[in-house]
Design goal:
Layout: E1 5-8, E2 13-16, E3 27-29, H1 30-33, E4 37-39, E5 45-55, E6 64-70, E7 77-81, E8 85-89, E9 92-95, E10 111-113, H2 114-117, E11 122-125, E12 130-133, E13 136-142, E14 145-152, H3 155-162, H4 165-175, E15 185-187, E16 191-193, H5 204-210, H6 215-224, H7 227-236, H8 239-247, H9 251-258, H10 263-272, H11 275-284, H12 287-296, H13 299-309, H14 316-319, E17 325-327, H15 333-343, E18 352-356, E19 362-367, H16 368-373, H17 380-383, H18 397-407, E20 411-416, E21 419-425, H19 426-435
Parallel strand pairs: 4-9, 17-18
Antiparallel strand pairs: 1-2, 3-13, 4-5, 5-6, 5-10, 6-7, 8-9, 11-12, 11-16, 13-14, 14-15, 18-19, 20-21
């Protein structure tokens, strides 16, 4: 056999042919490289490739930094640096050095064991905002390096892993040719791997991607995950993202998520929520758990939420948010716009502005559009109008919905003894009417 080096394995004869240098820019699947033999420079078999370590600190195409090789006989796993790898192909890996390249097993910095921590695990696709399961990894050869390009979440990836690709491809070629080109890849940069067993998979870089996911989608992602992986993602979310995800979650999931974190962090998350949403959440918890979270909150925020807890959750008082845009009647339109800018940092609803006296008596309402169209020097009390449907705190959700629909309102003020207590917005009305 020309240009080949014979090597007799203890169990069977293995013929090793020095590999031809691979062409740059080509792809290979992780499943095609796992379990393949690793040879030294003279063709001696050093073991089998069982995993690849990649640097997860690189957001787009993490490069492979080392191989994990299981030695024959004892089954001990060793580390081989990528600098010691000449080639890595489906036929096997070839190393520059022999046994001296086999180092003690270690994991450095942001390294991820791809087979151990990524294959068969759930991931968050932050581009499509959904949870997928990893069936394979698509690796790119570039400049002598091997980099992770895509996550394979398709059926073909699973078939390839099982070793059935040739048979299935042959069968499908006759009945559904499109199957042969139907790959389901997710770019690595859109992936947040989840694994409860290692903090190294919790990528800080993925937090920036999560910031672009809508809170409703994030809530759905949390619901789709199993309990262990749900805990990994929720504990690792920044407080503001955890709060918005909780606001969009079902009560059962809310309770479960809050119980996954310490009371102090739970208090931080609840403080970040809108007060009406926080009150709804705490009302669903057992009294002792609710009291523990309230005790850990800042006193001002805690008092605000406690007031809301005194109302029935199906009433206007239970649905209202005490944070709203407040304007003084003496302001000009220009001054009012600046006041809106200042308050909007803390207030979620910026569609309607409520004109109140110092004693919080409601004088009128105007929209942000009214302010934008008004002359800068126009006084607010000349622009405002009387609200057509002020509410009492005890008004039921059905009445609130009827008034919102009748007058085509975005928000409705809740008053008691002439003082403005809070505002019910149409999204809260819809949520209450549709889901109860």
């Amino acid at each position: 056999m020309k240009n080949s080096v014979p090597h007799l394995d203890r169990a069977k004869a293995v013929w090793y042919r020095p590999s031809v240098p691979t062409r740059e820019g080509t792809f290979v699947f992780l499943s095609e490289l796992l379990g393949r033999p690793a040879f030294g420079p003279n063709g001696e078999r050093l073991g089998d490739v069982v995993d690849f370590l990649a640097d997860a600190s690189e957001p787009a195409y993490p490069k492979v930094t080392a191989l994990r090789i299981r030695m024959p006989g004892r089954g001990e796993v060793r580390r081989v640096e990528w600098d010691d790898v000449v080639s890595c192909e489906p036929e096997g890996a070839r190393l520059k050095r022999g046994a001296e390249a086999m180092l003690p097993l270690k994991l450095f910095g942001n390294e991820i064991p791809l087979a151990q921590d990524i294959l068969d695990r759930q991931i968050v696709d932050t581009d499509d905002a959904k949870v997928e399961r990893v069936n394979d990894l698509h690796l790119l050869r570039a400049r002598g390096e091997l980099r992770v390009a895509h996550v394979d979440v398709g059926f073909r990836g699973l078939v390839r892993r099982m070793g059935w690709q040739r048979a299935v491809d042959a069968a499908m070629k006759a009945v559904r040719p499109s199957y042969l080109t139907r790959e389901q890849f997710v770019p690595w940069k859109h992936v947040q791997p989840l694994a409860a067993g290692t903090s190294k998979v919790r990528l800080d870089l993925a937090r920036r991607a999560i910031a672009d996911v809508h809170p409703s989608d994030l809530a759905e992602i949390l619901e789709d995950l199993d309990r262990r992986e749900r805990a990994v993602l929720f504990r690792d979310l920044p407080v503001e993202f955890a709060a918005t995800a909780l606001e969009e979650s079902e009560p059962g999931l809310q309770r479960e998520l809050l119980r996954m974190v310490e009371p102090e962090r739970a208090a931080d998350i609840v403080e970040e929520m809108q007060p009406d949403a926080a009150a709804d959440l705490l009302s669903e918890l057992p009294a002792d758990e609710s009291a523990e979270i309230l005790a850990a909150m800042e006193p001002l925020e805690a008092r605000e939420v406690e007031k809301l807890l005194t109302y029935d959750e199906d009433s206007a008082g239970g649905m209202m948010n005490p944070e709203f845009l407040r304007l003084s009647p003496a302001m000009t339109a220009q001054g009012a716009l600046q006041a809106v800018r200042d308050q909007a940092k803390e207030v979620a609803q910026v569609h309607d502005c409520f004109v109140v006296q110092r004693d919080r008596r409601l004088l009128g309402v105007l929209s942000l559009r009214d302010l934008l169209l008004a002359a800068p020097e126009a006084p607010v009390d000349a622009i405002m109008h009387e609200h057509p449907a002020p509410l009492d705190p005890e008004d039921r959700a059905g009445k609130v919905a009827e008034l919102a629909a009748k007058y085509n309102l975005f928000s409705l003020p809740v008053e008691k003894d002439g003082r403005l207590l809070g505002v019910v917005t149409v999204d809260d009305v819809l949520e209450k009417v549709l889901h109860g």
